[in-house]
Every structure is written in structure tokens, then in C-alpha cells.
Hints:
The protein has helices spanning 13-24, 31-39, 44-55, 61-72, 90-102, 117-131, 138-162, 176-188, and strands at residues 2-7, 28-30, 81-84, 109-114, 167-171. The chain is of the alpha/beta class. The chain has a five-stranded parallel sheet, sandwiched between helices. Adenosine monophosphate binds at residues 9, 31-32, 35, 52-53, 56-59, 64, 85-86, 88, 92, 135, 144.
Amino acid sequence: MILIFLGAPGAGKGTQAELLSNKLNLPHLSTGDILRKKLLESDYLSLKLKKIMDSGDLVSDQILNEIMSIRLNNLDCKKGFILDGYPRTLMQNKFFHEYLEKNKKSISHIFDLKINEATIIERIKSRFKTENREDDKTEIINNRISKYFQETKPLSDHFSFNNSDKYHLINGNQDIEMIHQDILKISRN
Ligand code: AMP
């Protein structure tokens, strides 16, 4: 089973992907977490990545595709996986699509978490207090939201148009458990 989470920053992708990963026993692949782990290596590449991520910009498609092609080849992905934060652009999706074709796999469901902008800002601000993420600072949030509209929203539109049978728009303004139940019901169908 291959599941994809889409949504603006703060929409709850990570929380929902983790809950579902525990329930369905599938690996949760968060590109944000993978990149943040990479930052700890403090080599030249990670310093470059830190600058990009702290500014709220997206890391290049080439780097993400390279990271994911390695990660998706891991044995734990054989029976399926949950993607949180990838693909995030049309270019990444093209690469991912080629991976699927080459490996004779297909997407099971795409969950697009939709929340209003006021809720996004409120959630990210409260996450900043607990996780202290540099890119959750108020002045960076706006750039992340605008990158979402420029780069990721077109991908949502692409999926809703071309994969309408697998694409599910989820009301992300509900509380965590209700969203989880909505998603679980669809995944088990
Ligand atoms: P996230 O934890 O998903 O909000 O990601 C945090 C940051 O990591 C983003 O603002 C980007 O700088 C970077 N990032 C994560 N996933 C991707 C991706 N698929 N493509 C480009 N940049 C990414």
C-alpha cells in the first residue's frame, strides 16, 4: 500500500502520517525529518541545506529525488510506505512516477489535508514553542506558505484532476482523532 500526504505546512501531515503508520504498520517517510537528520552531519551539503530550510525555501528537486531513490530501495518499503512531504513539486512527482512504473507499483491513496490560513499560522506558532524549529518562526511561515502555493498546490491540482479515484480532500480543521478516523476508513476500504 502506497499512501501520499499533501497539504500546506502545519496542515497535520506529519501527525496523521505517524498515526497511520502505527496503525497500518507501514514505514512513515517524512522528507522534512530525513533532511533535518542530515543537517546534524554538519558537512558542506548540510550547511547548504540548513540555509535553504531555515529560509523556508524548498530544497532542490535533484537532492530530494536522490534521497528518496535511496530510501525507497530500503527493504522496509517492500510492502508499502507512507509519504509525508514528497512528492512536493510536479518535477518530484515525475521522478516518483518513473520509480512506480519501473517497480510495477501504484499509489493507493492520496490524502490532501485542507486547512484555512489562520489555522496554519496558529498551529505552526504553537509547534514553534514545543519543537523550536527555525523555519516555524513567524517571518519564515509566510515564505513556506507561498512556496506551498507556487510549488505544491499545482501538484494537488494535478492529482485531483488525473487521479481523482485515489485523491481525497480531507478537512484538516477537525481535531486530530477525527481526521485520523476519516483517513483510516478510506485506507481500509
Ligand atoms: P516539512 O517538515 O515537511 O515542513 O519540511 C521542512 C523543510 O524541508 C521544507 O520547508 C523544505 O525546505 C524541506 N523539504 C522537505 N521536503 C521537501 C521536498 N519534498 N522538496 C523540497 N524541499 C523539501
